[in-house]
Amino acid sequence: MKFLLVFDFDHTIIDENSDTWIVKCAPERKLPNGLRNSYQPGHWTEYMGRVFVYLGDNGVKEDEMKRTMTTIPFTAGMIDLLGFIGENKELFDCIIVSDSNTVFIDWILKAADFRKVFDEVFTNPAAFSSTGYLTVQHFHAHHCAECPKNLCKRKVLKEFLDKQLERGVSYTQIMYIGDGGNDLCPVMFLKKNDIAMPRQGYTLEKRISQLAQSLSPVQCSVLVWSSAIDIMSYLKLLIKE
């Protein structure tokens, strides 16, 4: 009996968007209009690259960025949930699939001492250049028409499961915990015994309920959560069984 928990990061583990939070480091805590308006749908990573150049040009250093990022609040109940998973790691494998970046996620998880809860983190690779600028790259290339061009979460999940099978690891149930439109693609991949856990009031919940209304519902079960305590209650029942 082994369970897989797949987490999104922004608005799921943390109660904010890490990419927009970094703007607090900008002069007057805002971006110039020209930069703000330069975003094109499906090209968020390129947009963030320009934001990081702007911050670097304005002398924003790594330590200031780190200090700012580690003030992001966790979602209600999430600290309890991650603590519970950490205490039961023999039952739960746990991964993050996120459109944030490696630097932000590492900073936030390490500061809260949650890095060891997660077996793997799949997100856009980021690093500081020799001149001290944060740079970010696409996670991978894919052919999915539904997803932003830098990341298809279904592809990540499928490749992870294939790799685990090669190691002889298969899961009794997969639980996918997320909030956004880009979480729908991996949720559509889940099977009847799996469970999607969309955050209440966010895009993923709305998209799943639209599918149900158009009579093409997702195959898996759905558990809507507003606090991560809801998820923890479910996991406790699962373990008791």
TrEMBL record:
Residues engaged in binding substrate: 19, 99
Binding site for Mg(2+): 8, 10, 179
Matching Pfam families: Put_Phosphatase
Domain of life: Eukaryota
Active site annotation, chain numbering: 8 (nucleophile), 10 (proton donor)
Matching InterPro entries: HAD-like_sf (IPR036412), HAD_hydro_PyrdxlP_Pase-like (IPR006384), HAD_sf (IPR023214), Pase_PHOSPHO-typ (IPR016965)
Keyword Cytoplasm attached: no
Keywords: Hydrolase, Magnesium, Metal-binding
GO molecular function: metal ion binding; phosphatase activity
SUPFAM superfamilies: HAD-like (SSF56784)
Cofactor(s) the protein needs: Mg(2+)
Family, similarity comment: Belongs to the HAD-like hydrolase superfamily. PHOSPHO family.
UniProt protein name: PHOP2 phosphatase
Lineage: Eukaryota, Metazoa, Chordata, Craniata, Vertebrata
Gene: Phospho2
